[in-house]
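In the previous chapter we treated chains in isolation. Here, by contrast, the input contains two separate entities that must be folded as one system, with a combined length of 610 residues.
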Amino acid sequence: MTKLQPHSSFIPPMSSPIRAPTWVSTRRQLELKVSELHKCSNLPHLKQIHAQIFKANLHDDPFVAPKLVSAFSLCHQLRIAINVFNQVQFPNVHLYNSLIRAHTQNSQQSQAFTTFLDMLKNGVFPDNFTYPFLLKACIGTCSLEMVQMIHTHMIKLGFFADIFVPNSLIDSYCKCGVIGVSSARKLFMVMEDRDVVSWNSMVSGLIKGGLLEEARQMFDEMPERDVVSWNTMLDGYVKARDMNSAFHLFEKMPGRNVVSWSTMVSGYTKAGDLDMARLLFDKMPVKNLVSWTIMISGYAEKGFIKEAICLYNEMENSGLELDDGTIISILAACAESGLLALGKRVRSSMVAAGFRCSTAVTNALIDMYAKCGCVEKALAVFQGMSERDLVSWNTIIQGLAMHGDGLTALKLFYRMKQAGFEPDKITFIGILCACTHMGYVDRGVGYFYSMERDYYIVPQIEHYGCLIDLLGRGGRLKEALEVVQNMPMEPNAVIWGTLLGACRLHYPEELAQEVLKHLVKMNPAEAGNLSMLSNIFAAAGDWANVANVRRAMKNIGVQKPSGTSTLDLDGEVHEFTVFDSSHPNSEDIYQMIHLLRPQLKKPGYAPRLT
DNA sequence: GTAGGGTTAG
């Protein structure tokens, strides 16, 4: 007989999760459904159960309502979750907790805090679940001060007996940068009872703070290690690109699981060792969706299109059902390396499977089309979207700007505002880029100054970079230099490089020399800078200085890596560099170039040789 | 509460 577990007076446990939607007739059956409700991710089914709950007058039951809120939150139906909450006259702490979490899950962090304040105002006392949920709302949006405030509150009310509470505090501190990590360490030191999660959170925090050595020390000191401890340490080495140490640890590791193997595969793909990655991938005792995703994206990111497509087909044939993460990952990898063929392949299988595209998936698709040169397709996908978010607008604006259709990009900027979206710092990168490509210098400068004035966005160094590029390409080098000299932050190598790029277009020799002094000081071995400088001198006919720079390059022992072009032809990628003769059809290719050259000159093509 | 893939810029 199945052993019954202790449970609430109302809901018995259930062994299997909710599956196909079926009409439940008895109250007993409904109770069974409700007990698993918080795991339900099927929206139509959820709505059906909601209706039955309502009919049975259980919607304000103190046990049912929090589960409903959690379920609707999981299905990204925050509106409905809030409505469910509002149906309850006297919400208890569980219901408040689930609404706080619902807001965080649906990216409404500030509303999570508002809910917490409402809760206090209404005299409902927080419990040991409230704080971990509230701390989650701090991640990514709030500062250290916020976590400190919650910490203080927790001390006042005293929930530290539950190990979940200090553990989640350690984690939150660690996600607030290096200072946060030291606060976490202080807390960790004074904790009386630490469990393996406390140790793991601390090791993970040290790794995130870049303190790999100290993390290893703590890992070695741990009284007990579980599979998460090992995997955390493994990932630390992987993220630091130290594959030797990672492999060493991996070999020693007891009880490796699918995450351990995937971490290693991911590490080797990122290090560019696709052979080793594939070797481990093939040896994996168990593969899941994430492992496949890592290997396929790894191939795609590095331009191994045949292998990527082949493995993608294999994954589909193995019967695994793709999720958002898989599709977004692969599309992002295609976008990065311009693998349109795989991107198209992914899309066609999405269509064939009737995959319901979330906004994030569609955004990734738009970005893939745009970065692979199909701006029209990107625009068509964007226009067909039923629900757009800020990322959708930013992606299409950036895509259009990159391809020189700055006019459409700027038009969409206005439409975006009409649709009620507030531009953010990324939007302005796209807008400034659009103006640069169109040569709208004054208009771009106007947008730059409107950022802080009209939108309360303080320009960052990237925005200054865009402004310098805008002025520089527009030939207003003096103003560009003034921006560099007067901007509120120290100019970095990218800023000076941008200015140098402008010099390359307009040949002001003196300025170029000035810029270069800064650049060489910052990054003396950067061959690209030196070779660009030598080109500027060459264009000005200053051969003595050309020789000086060349000599400097030789002395430092740098050589500018050749630029390459890649072509994707019927799913096969061909790579070319200048004076390259490694391609099997090299002779034919050069013959064709000779044939094409005079024809290209006719409409006015003049290759730039400097 | 701790571990592997995940959309926009740089």
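Confidence is low (pLDDT under 50) at residues 1-24 of chain A. Residues 70 and 532 of chain A are 58 Å apart (CA to CA). Compare these points with the single-chain example from earlier in the chapter.
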